[in-house]
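Field log, afternoon session.

UNIT: design team B
ACTIVITY: writing a sequence onto a fixed backbone
BACKBONE:
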């Protein structure tokens, strides 16, 4: 007969539960979607710090952040939408549509500009709901749905502006009541530590923080990853796929409204043809930041890093006194390099599991 020794206090001889495996810091680091973009951002920063003397000046840093914020505000919801497995090709012109509605409603009604701002919010959100509902009801690819919206908005922006204003741009609303307070919220400038910073930078940081919290700390964030990983499987376990998709498109619409108001209150007038092509830049920022085209993977922080790379490149070329015609070339090269680096990082992360 064999006696079993009692367990020694303070000592755990029981086999570990294989479902509760510890994750090493290296494995957690390699599993972060934004790792590749952070490495890329560091490389771009060092490159322009060497080739452009004025790149490291405080004033230049504020300019780079502003350029990044104008892209980053839209890259955040676009990244969430891509994590959810969808696209929005109308995001660029939707920014212009938002600004046009605010301007023309305010001017034609001869009302406080805040009336136009609120009407613009409702109209912009309605367009987001339209995209989401049409996608969920028809089950057509989001590429086709939002391409149609893109074309319709492009035509409406130009046609209605010429019909109402007689030209391709809106009338100035700088002398209207409420303009100063609206500009303070959407287009003002702050001085922090001797550096002039646009308020869009604060909007950008706030949206990144909010989106990160949603993705990592809320049920809706789990739904986004689940829908992007596989809508059918997500629906089978009780995830409200339709609600999630509509909510994501409304998020894109809200940020388009914010960007549109900044556009309006920065320049007083809006050109109806602006915004075309910007949707690709938003998608590029999200992809550089680690989002997969196939969905189910990415982060809001990564989109911010991607937008920061865009800001450094666009302004770094100017500070280096290069021909700006090369900008698109560098942007395309960074897209390819970031995609390859992200793929390599993901393979390394999977190999360490």
């Amino acid at each position: 007969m064999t006696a079993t020794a009692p367990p020694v206090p303070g000592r755990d001889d029981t086999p570990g539960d294989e479902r509760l495996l510890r994750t090493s810091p290296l494995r957690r680091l390699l599993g972060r979607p934004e790792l590749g973009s952070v490495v890329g951002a560091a490389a771009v920063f060092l490159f322009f710090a060497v080739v452009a003397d004025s790149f490291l000046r405080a004033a230049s840093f504020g300019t780079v952040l502003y350029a990044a914020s104008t892209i980053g505000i839209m890259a955040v919801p676009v990244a969430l939408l891509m994590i959810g497995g969808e696209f929005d090709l109308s995001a660029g012109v939707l920014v212009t549509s938002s600004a046009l509605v605010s301007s023309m409603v305010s001017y034609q009604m001869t009302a406080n500009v805040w009336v136009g701002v609120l009407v613009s919010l409702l109209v912009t959100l309605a367009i987001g709901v339209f995209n989401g509902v049409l996608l969920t009801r028809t089950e057509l690819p989001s590429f086709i749905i939002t391409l149609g919206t893109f074309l319709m908005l492009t035509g409406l922006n130009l046609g209605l502006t010429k019909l109402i204003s007689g030209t391709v741009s809106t009338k100035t609303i700088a002398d209207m009541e409420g303009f100063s307070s609206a500009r303070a919220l959407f287009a003002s400038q702050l001085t922090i530590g001797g550096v002039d910073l646009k308020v869009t930078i604060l909007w950008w940081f706030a949206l990144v923080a909010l989106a990160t919290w949603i993705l990592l700390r809320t049920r809706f964030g789990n739904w986004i990853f689940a829908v992007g990983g596989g809508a059918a499987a997500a629906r089978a376990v009780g995830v409200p796929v339709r609600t999630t998709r509509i909510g994501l498109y409304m998020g894109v619409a809200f940020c388009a409204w914010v960007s549109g108001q900044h556009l309006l209150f920065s320049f007083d007038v809006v050109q109806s043809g602006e915004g075309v092509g910007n949707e690709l830049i938003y998608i590029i920022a999200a992809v550089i930041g680690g989002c997969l085209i196939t969905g189910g993977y990415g982060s809001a922080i990564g989109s911010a890093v991607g937008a920061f790379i865009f800001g450094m490149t666009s302004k770094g070329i100017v500070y280096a006194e290069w021909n700006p015609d090369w900008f698109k070339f560098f942007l395309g090269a960074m897209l390819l390099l970031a995609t390859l680096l992200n793929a390599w990082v993901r393979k390394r992360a999977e190999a360490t599991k």
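LOG NOTE: Residues 10-20 have pLDDT under 50 and may be disordered.
NEXT ACTIVITY: expression trials, pending approval
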